[in-house]
Structures are given as structure tokens and as C-alpha cells.
Design a protein that fits this description.
With 580 residues, this protein is α+β, with helices and mostly antiparallel strands. The protein contains 14 helices and 18 strands. The protein folds into two domains: 337 residues, Glycosyltransferase; 217 residues, Beta-galactosidase, Chain A, domain 5, CATH 2.70.98. It starts with 18 loop residues before the first helix and ends in a 6-residue tail after the last strand.
Length: 580
């Protein structure tokens, strides 16, 4: 990576980063990929042993499209001239056709968006023949069938550009309307979309489901659409800002995490379109914090290339579609460079992030998540009681995630999985049913191995959690293992038995674990848990006490707060103290 400009701790007291740092990072990334362009510039064949399931040709197109988007946000005329040559060659027959559910449909959206954003600098300078062939190649995106998820928005993005240049405008507008209608079935309110059928909540909500409709509405100057989609974005950002740790780390949850600082997309998008509840200094603090977090931790290798991973290379965060150029969806994170240098988002002093202002217990309704953050150490924890996608487990189906820990990968034995209830050696968690979320609590039910049902409740205060699990449908004597947070550098993880559990006898590496056995019918297991970076935290037993009352009621008393009384049944949480 090229050297960064000097820090400015006056303007940016939290990160030291300014617009100059974003420009330098973009320039370095563009310079690093340039040597890997094919002679005609149509493909960017980045080094690495891994090929995505779409094949090497598609991977080369991916390298072109995703780095073109970066050049477009940077408005780098010299780089755009190189990409213009590559476009001419690509549509001459080098690029694969856009077909049903094929990866080129994804890349077509990046190309179309880049062309729309830089039209005077790139598109308008092409000769007519190249423009006609490019429009024809992109036009296949209007008829190709996308996967039923965020892919529905790629034809929207292509159609917006084609309508603007007058290529089949009526057809383009019809496709835009049809595809936008399709995503309505996945909008669940309060700014939250699920990425297709089911309950798939992750960063695709921001860097896809919000990005493409809002940008299209903004570029088309469509006030009605911008009010609709921009309003949803603004609502979402009130929640989203809480997903970043004090060190800048985004929450380590969901798929495609190798896109890294693409997590900043909704922050910049809100500032760009004026649809945000965040102040300009807070927006830049969160975005710059994420960029710096990754640059400081080896996301860029010695050649200046983004590696396939999270910090450095990490196969655990990859999917079958991840090829050498996949990480360059991180280019979306440079959306903020569309804002002029004199925009308040670049000139206002940085403001504290939510995690730096106060401890918080924030319920997120549609995903049925509870965010638990502590100001003293800058940690954010996400208690997951409503999101799943078993295709990408463990990044969806664990009970909790954080900004400092990573889920134990599936390659490890199930007994070592973090934040899990493991019944008879099986850590399965499917058919997650939300049971409610409120300030300081969240609950759900899921199906474990053998059809066993587990009702889960977490109560949180400060950095401490009380985790209760009611296991139903297991034969008497069935072993149950409850695990806590995965270990991580610089933090302490605690897990103590409270009801029905004891310390695990084994000393296997991985997260702390407790064990117990079912007694038949329903069996309640309760543990005290904590993830903290505090050097000398108060003992868990001095922070919270738990006892069982009559008829199985659970009494939880916090040393600095009230007593809460709850009763778990098979698939329900009964309490006068908890309000959904």
C-alpha cells in the first residue's frame, strides 16, 4: 500500500483520517491492480490459486468491473481511459454473455453504474460502434433471470443507465418497475430487508438492498422513489451506526465479509442523498474507522492487493463465488468520494460513534437482534434471535456475534462451536422462530438435532449476559453442551454455570463450555456469560444472581438494577417484566 497522508487529529480526533486518506487508498488500490490487466484491458486476472465457481473468464470480468467502479468514484480520468479501452475490447467478444443467474449479471451492474456516474468522462468519449455494442451487451441484463435475492436489483441498475442513454427506454423502465416491485416482499419494516425468502439479515441489506434503489432514484432525480427508498435508508441508519466497534470494526456476521469496508456504503449513501439521521462528523468517523481498521490489519498485501479474507487471507469467510477479484466489491466503500471536498461530511470535525457515547442495549425489531455495546472497551455484541441461512452457517446461525470475535468455522468439531447449544453432540440450529426483543433482552426458538426444540432467552446489562435455554423433546440423560464466546486477542471471555450446568470436564481449545443432561420433558439450562476488554472486571457472580422460583420461574437480579422474573415454556417467554 502506498504511504498515507499525515494524520489530522484536529479535524479527525478519532481516526486521524481525512478525504486525502480515502483518495490515497483509492489511488493505491487502482495502481496495484493495473499490472494484472490483460493486454487489451478487458480482464483483470488477479493472482491467486483460487478460482470461483463461475470460472476464470468470469473472474477476470469481475476484476475489470469492480475496479472500474473504484475508478468511477475516484473520477480518475487517466484510469478511466484505460477502462474505456478495456470496455471496447470486452464487448467485442471477450466478455461472457449475461445469462440467467450468471455472475456477469452482477458485474454488469457495476459497469453500468460506473458508466452512469462518469458519463462525460468515459461513455460520451467512446465511438458509436463501441457504444452500440456495449449497450447490446448490457441489454441482456434486462432479460436474464436473477437469483431471487439482491440480484433482482442488478437489472434495475443496468436499466437505469440504458434508459438514460435512450437504449430501449420503455423496456428498461418496465424492467426497473418489475424488479423494484419484487423486493417489496422482502421489506420487513424499520429499514430492514431480508436478502430473499426467509430471514437472511446481514450487510447485503445495506450494500445492496438499500444501495441500488436509492442510487437509482437519486441519479434519475425521481423524488417519489427517493422519498420511499431514502426514507427506509434513513430509518435503517439509526440502527446501522450501532454495528461498529470503537476500533472501527464492523460486526463480524453474515456472508461476503471479504468485501470489508463496503460496510461503509449505507453511511456514505445517506450523506450523499441527504437521507440520514447521522451528523456529517459521525458519518465520517464511522466510515473512516472501518477503512482504517482494515488497512491497519493487513487487508492489503505486499503487492497492494486486497486479499481474500477479513484482516489478511482467511478462507473461513469465503463462499464458492469468491474469486481473486471478489474483494473489490470493497470499491463501493469509496462512494463518499462522490461528495465534493467542501461537503460537511469532509469538513466537519469527527463526532463520537454510538459505542463511544454510552453503554447501550438496542433492540432491532425485524431481525430480532439485540445490540449490546459498552463504552469503556468499545465492544459491540449482537445477540441473534432471528436470522438464519443454513447455507452460510456459522455466520448466520450462532446465538451471538461481536466486533472482536470470529465464529468458529464448520471445519472444527461441533463441540468447539461458539455461542451454541449442542444437544447430543449436534450443534444444529434451524427453523429459528423469533419470540420477541426489547431493551436488554431477546428470545427465540429453534430446532436442534433429532427434532429437539430449544427456546432461548438472553438478558443483558453492561457487558454481562444471562443466557437461558429450555430444551424440549430430548430423551432423559441426553447430554447438552452450552458454549460461550470464541477466544480473541485482547479480550476476556467468561462463562459460568447457573442452572442445570457445570464446567465442562474436557480442556479442548476453543470457546468456554458448560455441560449438563436433560431430565425428560423440558429441561432448563442457564449460564452467565461475558465478553469484555476491561482489564479487571467484577466477577460475574457479584454482577448478577440467578435463582429458580416456584413453577420454574427464573429470577434474575442485577447488582445495579432491578430483579426480572421470567418463565420459559416450549416456544414462549412469559413475563410481566419484559415488554416486546
Amino acid at each position: 500500500m502506498h504511504s498515507q497522508p499525515d494524520e489530522d487529529r484536529s479535524l479527525s480526533p478519532y481516526t486521524g483520517y481525512t478525504r486525502a486518506h480515502w483518495e490515497a487508498a483509492a489511488d493505491a488500490l487502482l495502481a496495484a491492480v493495473a499490472p494484472y490487466a490483460t493486454a487489451d484491458g478487458a480482464l483483470y486476472d488477479l493472482p491467486g490459486d483460487r478460482t470461483s465457481w463461475s470460472g476464470r473468464l468470469s473472474d477476470g470480468l469481475e476484476g475489470y468491473a469492480r475496479t472500474l467502479l473504484l475508478a468511477a468514484f475516484r473520477k480518475d480520468e487517466k484510469a478511466l481511459a484505460r477502462y474505456a479501452d478495456g470496455l471496447a475490447a470486452g464487448v467485442q467478444g471477450v466478455w461472457p454473455r449475461i445469462e440467467d443467474r450468471g455472475q456477469p449479471l452482477v458485474e454488469a451492474a457495476s459497469i453500468a453504474l460506473a458508466l452512469r456516474l462518469t458519463r462525460p468522462l468515459l461513455w460520451d468519449r467512446l465511438d458509436d460502434g463501441v457504444r452500440q455494442r456495449a449497450a447490446a451487451w448490457l441489454g441482456d441484463a434486462l432479460t436474464a433471470e436473477p437469483w431471487p435475492c439482491n440480484w433482482e436489483l442488478f437489472p434495475v441498475t443496468v436499466g437505469g443507465f440504458l434508459a438514460e442513454i435512450g437504449h430501449e427506454p420503455e423496456r428498461s423502465r418496465r424492467v426497473i418497475e418489475e424488479r423494484l416491485d419484487r423486493i417489496e416482499q422482502w421489506y420487513l419494516g424499520d429499514g430492514w430487508y431480508t436478502d430473499g425468502d426467509g430471514r437472511k439479515f446481514d450487510y447485503y441489506n445495506g450494500w445492496a438492498m438499500h444501495l441500488y434503489p436509492v442510487l437509482h432514484a437519486w441519479l434519475a432525480d425521481d423524488a417519489r422513489l427517493l422519498d420511499l427508498y431514502g426514507g427506509r435508508l434513513s430509518t435503517h441508519l439509526a440502527d446501522y451506526a450501532g454495528l461498529f466497534g470503537g476500533d472501527g470494526a464492523p460486526m463480524h456476521q453474515g456472508r461476503s465479509l471479504t468485501y470489508r469496508f463496503a460496510t461503509t456504503v449505507p453511511l456514505w449513501l445517506g450523506a450523499l442523498t441527504g437521507r440520514t439521521p447521522l451528523g456529517p462528523g459521525e458519518t465520517r468517523r464511522l466510515a473512516s474507522g472501518a477503512l482504517r481498521y482494515f488497512l491497519d490489519r493487513g487487508a492489503v498485501d505486499g503487492r497492494g492487493l486486497l486479499s481474500l479474507g477479513w484482516h489478511g487471507p482467511d478462507p473461513a469467510v469465503l463462499q464458492g463465488y469468491s474469486g481473486p477479484a471478489s474483494p473489490y466489491w470493497a470499491s463501493k466503500g469509496f462512494l463518499g468520494l462522490l461528495l465534493p471536498p467542501d461537503h460537511p461530511v469532509w469538513t466537519a470535525p469527527e463526532e463520537a460513534a454510538p459505542v463511544e457515547r454510552a453503554d447501550a442495549l438496542r433492540p432491532l425489531g425485524p431481525p430480532n437482534w439485540l445490540l449490546q455495546s459498552t463504552r469503556s472497551d468499545g465492544l459491540v455484541r449482537l445477540h441473534n434471535h432471528g436470522s438464519e441461512d443454513v447455507r452460510y452457517d456459522p455466520y448466520y446461525t450462532r446465538l451471538a456475534y461481536s466486533t472482536v470475535t470470529a465464529p468458529v468455522p464448520l471445519a472444527e468439531p461441533p463441540s468447539r462451536y461458539d455461542n451454541s447449544v449442542i444437544v447430543d453432540g449436534d450443534a444444529t440450529r434451524t427453523d429459528i422462530e423469533p419470540l420477541g426483543v426489547g431493551e436488554g433482552w431477546a428470545a427465540s426458538r429453534h430446532t436442534a438435532g433429532g427434532g429437539v426444540r430449544v427456546t432461548n432467552l438472553v438478558l443483558a446489562r453492561g457487558a454481562v449476559e444471562v443466557r437461558a435455554h429450555l430444551v424440549a423433546g430430548a430423551a432423559p440423560g441426553t447430554p447438552v453442551r452450552v458454549t460461550g464466546w470464541a477466544p480473541a486477542v485482547g479480550v476476556r471471555t467468561d462463562l459460568r454455570p447457573a442452572v442445570g450446568l457445570r464446567d465442562a470436564a474436557d480442556d479442548a481449545p476453543g470457546p468456554r463450555a458448560l455441560t449438563g443432561e436433560t431430565t425428560g420433558g423440558t429441561t432448563l439450562f442457564v449460564a452467565l456469560s461475558r465478553l469484555t476488554a476491561a482489564p479487571t472486571p467484577t466477577s460475574l457472580e457479584d454482577t448478577v444472581t440467578v435463582r429458580l422460583g416456584e413453577q420454574g420461574a427464573l429470577h434474575v437480579r442485577w447488582s445495579d438494577g432491578p430483579e426480572v422474573r421470567v418463565h420459559l415454556t416450549d416456544g414462549a417467554v412469559l413475563s410481566d417484566d419484559l415488554e416486546p
